[in-house]
Amino acid sequence: MKENFFRSMTWLHTWVGLLVCWLLFLIFFAGTISFFKDEITYWFEPETHTVTHQDNRLAKQRQQINYAVEQLQNKAADSSSWRIYLPEPRNPLYTYSYAEPKQPGQRRAKFTETYLDPTTNEQIAPPRETKGGYFFYRLHFDLHYIDVRTARWLVCLASLFMLIALITGVVIHKRIFKDMFSFRKNKGSRSWLDAHNVSSVLALPFHIMITYTGLITLIFMVFPYPAQTVYEKGLQQMFNEASPIRARVESSDVPAPLVSMNTILDQVYTKSPDADIGFFFIRDANKESSRVSVYLNTGKEVVDNGAAFLFSGSTGELLAEQGKDWSASARFYDSMTALHAGRLASPLLRWLYFLCGIAGCAMIATGCIMWAKRLRERLKPQQQAGVGLKLVETLNLATLMGLPFATASFFIANRLLPLEMVARADKEILVFFLAWLAMTVLAIISSSKRQWQLAAWLNALVCFAVPLVNAMTTEGNWISYLLTQKWTLFCVDFGFIIAGSLFILQGKKLRTASKKLRTASKKVSTRRFQKPKDLKEQQG
To answer: Residue 512 domain-assigned?
Structure first.
């Protein structure tokens, strides 16, 4: 009975992992990078690298809001929406924007954005069009080119399979913590199993947390029935109740002067003396229906949506407040989302998230390779690999080596594509997928060790090319970033140098393994065609 149970758990662990492992690798890979999405976006916009983080950031927020509102009144008094983004610890930029009149057939109005130096309030040149790090953030749950609903269903199912694989993995490995400290080199699939165990156990709490919270963020897509039962208008009513400041009112044509922003800010600072304002939204300015939304940064709190306030733009009256009277379930859902996204993370904790995410990628990658290795080792000398094994090996090479290649190509495209190119941000993303396609074609041609070695050299080449191209196309490089203590820019460049070095090590190791394999094959062939000594003597 016990043996059958463990056999069933082993079968379940193998197949729930194998069926979605390549999708899971994409989700983990993109999600891991997105922990630094703001820093990556900053790297992607070299036009803003002269802007420095201001001292006494919080003390200047009132003046910055008043200045932005004054400018918006002069430029777009009749606009339906104003947005003000204040500098943050991870983003020194200070911007304001207004919505242009919506054109026929246009789903959303286009915004005209102005970039300012937060220290002097002087206007600076707008950065190049790019998605930056937010591409990876959206990719890890929207899968980009796939229909959004379909993509999120796929991600949700993959996350569920991941959770099952984690639980069954703990069950079937009786000595999982003991095996963590053992690694056997050059033992074929056994070595890959050891690597799989190490990468799994080292960050096991993180793997469980990130998978479970990821499922929670999509839970209403899979299981909407409780909300539909409790609320008459279903999910929309529930979200409006959780976030009352998002409730929309019909636009009015009755003119009414916009109240002084100091009237609103005085109320915000009274309720929250240490308020760190992140966003300031104004709808229907200079109308009776005007609404002012003030969003505070979450700081180190375990919340996804920080405190927020909704005011009447014509009277200054406080209409709604977010985060004050949340139910236990709403607070739980918000906290799970915050844990998944790492919104609470300090720089050190964010690096820990990142390293644990890399361990998750390693766990998935070693599982994929180990499965293919085991099947390959079970083949008889003259037996050809089946279609299933060839497909797995092709997908392994295409995904595990293709995504790093595509990522580095994406960074290079940001520097080399013409600034005036139409839909430039989309073209950067297109380069990402074309590079991935190129590696997939390489994998389809062959998935031998020689191809893995070639893929490793190619990855090393593009990784080293990122800081090189950056130095050739901008005024900075990783050495100057180090000397001027621009740590965000330095870490991006140096990260690619480390990645390139690791791919070189991989290429050298694969070359050594290929030489040993060829030597062993020659010896086997020599023995096969060599006549036995006794037979030679008989013939002599």
So the answer is: yes
Reported pTM: 0.88
Alpha-carbon torsion (466, 468, 472, 476), positive or negative: positive
Candidates 492, 407, 398; CA nearest to 439 is: 398
411 and 335 part of one domain? no
Torsions phi, psi for 416 (to 5 deg): -100, -25
Considering the domain boundaries, does residue 64 fall inside one? yes
Query: b/e map of 101-127 (b: 16 or more CB within 10 Å)?
Result: eeeeeeeeeeeeebbbbbeeeeebeeb
Q: Rounded CA gap, 364 and 253, in Å?
A: 57
In a domain, 392, yes or no: yes
Report yes or no: 62 and 262 within 8 Å, Cβ to Cβ: yes
Question: How many CB atoms are closer than 10 A to CB 387?
Answer: 7
Report the alpha-carbon distance of residue 478 to residue 43 in Å, rounded. Answer: 12
Beta bridge partners of 97: 83, 113
| 466/321 same-domain check | no
Domain that holds residue 299: 52-133+220-341
- How many domains does the chain fold into? 2
Residue 330 identity: A
Could you list the beta-strand ranges (E) of 233-287. 277-283
What letter would DSSP give residue 170? H
Name the token pair of 319: 């209409």
Is residue 270 in some structural domain? yes
The span from the CA of 367 to the CA of 25, in Å, is: 11
397-406: pLDDT as tens digits: 999 999 999 9
Q: At what angle do helices 424-445 and 387-400 cross, to 10 degrees?
A: 140
Q: What pLDDT, in 10s, does the model give residues 166-205?
A: 988 888 877 766 666 666 666 666 677 777 878 888 888 9
